[in-house]
Amino acid sequence: MADASATRHGPGRILIAVYGLFALSATGRAVVQIATQFSDAPIAYLLSALAAIIYCAATFALAKATIVSRKVATVAIIIELIGVVGIGAFSYAVPDDFPDATVWSHFGQGYGYVPLVLPILGLLWLRRTAQH
């Protein structure tokens, strides 16, 4: 059985803070992009909004630290990892669909590749704090 509250202690606090920062950043970026430039790259900007939703879900789930929220965090972070890898590859394969950077385009290059590393750290932290 996992100690659900372990996700929000020690290094988990830093992880939650980084997720919170990305939740705010991705949400702000998506809102501005959709409100001002949506017709320029609708796919990219909707994917930015999806990233924002996933970062928010992961942040709240890690901070809530219950058995259910651990499961929510795990699912959100797996989706995040699939998203950053998939969209990262897609943004190189079809660059015309990504005229402006998004959180996950080019594997998070515009954010110092933190979007690529963050879900790996998140999954490792969830695994480390799980008690079998």
Describe this structure in words.
The chain has 132 residues and is mainly alpha-helical. Helix content is 70%, strand content 0%. The protein has helices at 11-37, 42-64, 67-93, 114-128. The longest helix has 27 residues, at 11-37. It is elongated and about 45 Å long.
* Alpha-carbon Rg, integer: 15 Å
Mean pLDDT equals 91
Helix coverage percent of residues? 55-70%
The ordered string of helix (H) and strand (E) elements is HHHH
Low-confidence region ranges: none
How much of the residues is beta strand, in percent? Answer: under 5%
Number of helices: 4
Overview in brief:
This protein is mostly helical and 132 residues long. The protein has helices spanning 11-37, 42-64, 67-93, 114-128.
What are the SSEs and their pairings?
Layout: H1 11-37, H2 42-64, H3 67-93, H4 114-128
Helix pairs in contact: 1-2, 1-4, 2-3, 3-4
Index terms:
4 helices; mainly alpha; single chain; 132 residues; 0% strand
